[in-house]
Design brief:
3-stranded antiparallel β-sheet; hpI Integrase, Chain A; 6 strands; 359 residues; mainly alpha; 14 helices
């Protein structure tokens, strides 16, 4: 019989699995009739599995509901819900055992006419993750027809500004009365390589003025990895400016980027687009400030591994998109061959002279 926990309105089911082990499982609903129906369904499936080793048929909807409930704390949960809606339009109501490569190819064909290969890959990756999760965590014996069907994606976009253009953008931003915090935001992004939400979500407790560092905990980063970002002179000046603003207007605010009332700032896209428009800078997004920081570092000869650590890339492969900005590093590497080639040629000439004397 379904039951409720003290801290939740959701009904839970309790039944014995085929081995006799007690299973307690959330029904995901606060409706008693739905909970009764789910518990009865699970008990029947367990009975059939125990008596006749009959595996229950799993549907796409059942799979995605179970997966989304189990992963609702993911940062990408909202995007997962949106992608599931796209997948459901094609796979909804289907039994997972009946899905095969032909169905996946059909989905790819239907979506490629509307979206990029990258978008299709993200949607299919979600389905594949859900299947693998169910196979491992729920021991569902279902195939994964998505495996090995990733589409080729174009090389990652790299759009960056010259220091001169960046200076003009900062100047334009500083003159926008409706975006008084935009200039400071741009300067900090250019000098730290942080993502937009890493900056806007920065709290004062994670700013170490003495060590000139800002700390990004795992929960604040896209890669779910903690990292510390050093502040150069320009970034440090921005932090001090924000500290003075806080002291003057909202001393109790926890946010580095806040309004006069101490409330965290939301998106700065409108002001950013306006600043780009005023300076004649086209095809440039807020995230490209991060690309610009990386491009400047690589052009200055900073090793890719160090740029990777600063930006918080999970692998150096993501950082390699900037490698072409440091051709001098490669030129210095191949120059080593000149020495080897000349040395080898000199040795060969000496050997021939020695042979002639001996003759």
């Amino acid at each position: 019989m379904p039951y409720k926990r003290k801290d939740s309105p959701i009904w839970w089911a309790s039944y014995a699995d085929p081995s006799g082990k007690r299973v307690r499982r959330s029904t995901g609903t606060s409706d008693r009739k739905e909970a009764d129906a789910l518990e009865a369904k699970w008990k029947l499936e367990t009975y059939r599995l125990k008596q006749w080793n009959e595996q229950p048929a799993r549907t796409f909807d059942e799979l995605m509901l179970a997966y989304l409930m189990a992963t609702d704390t993911k940062k990408s949960h909202l995007k997962d819900l949106q992608r599931t809606t796209r997948l459901r339009g094609f796979f909804g109501g289907r039994t997972m055992d009946d899905l095969g490569p032909t169905d996946v190819r059909g989905y790819i064909a239907s979506r490629k006419a509307l979206v990029s290969n990258s978008t299709v890959n993200r949607e299919l990756a979600l389905l594949s993750s859900a299947i693998n999760w169910a196979r491992k965590e729920c021991e569902w014996d279902i195939p994964n027809p998505v495996s090995g069907r990733k589409l080729k994606e174009p090389e990652g976009r790299v759009r960056w500004l010259t220091p001169e253009d960046a200076g003009r953008l900062i100047q334009a931003a500083s003159e926008l009365r409706k975006a008084p915090h935009l200039s400071a935001f741009i300067r900090l992004a250019l000098n730290t390589g942080c993502r937009s939400q890493e900056i806007l979500g920065l709290e004062w407790r994670r700013v170490d003025l003495g060590a000139r560092l800002i700390v990004l905990e795992a929960e604040h980063t896209k890669s779910n990895r903690r990292r510390s970002v050093p502040l150069n002179d320009e970034a440090f000046r921005v932090i001090l400016e924000r500290a003075r603003f806080r002291a003057q207007h909202c001393p109790d605010s926890q946010w580095v980027f806040c309004n006069r009332f101490g409330e965290r700032l939301g998106s700065l896209k409108k002001g950013f687009w306006r600043a780009c428009e005023l300076t004649g800078i086209s095809d440039f997004r807020i995230h490209d400030l991060r690309h610009t920081c990386a491009a400047w570092l690589v052009s200055a000869g900073v090793p890719l591994t160090e740029v990777r650590d600063l930006l918080g890339h999970s692998t150096v492969k993501m950082t390699e998109r900037y490698a072409h900005l440091a051709p001098e590093n490669i030129r210095a590497a191949v120059a080593v061959l000149d020495g080897l080639s000349q040395s080898g040629h000199a040795t060969q000439k000496a050997r021939k002279k020695k042979e002639l004397r001996a003759a």
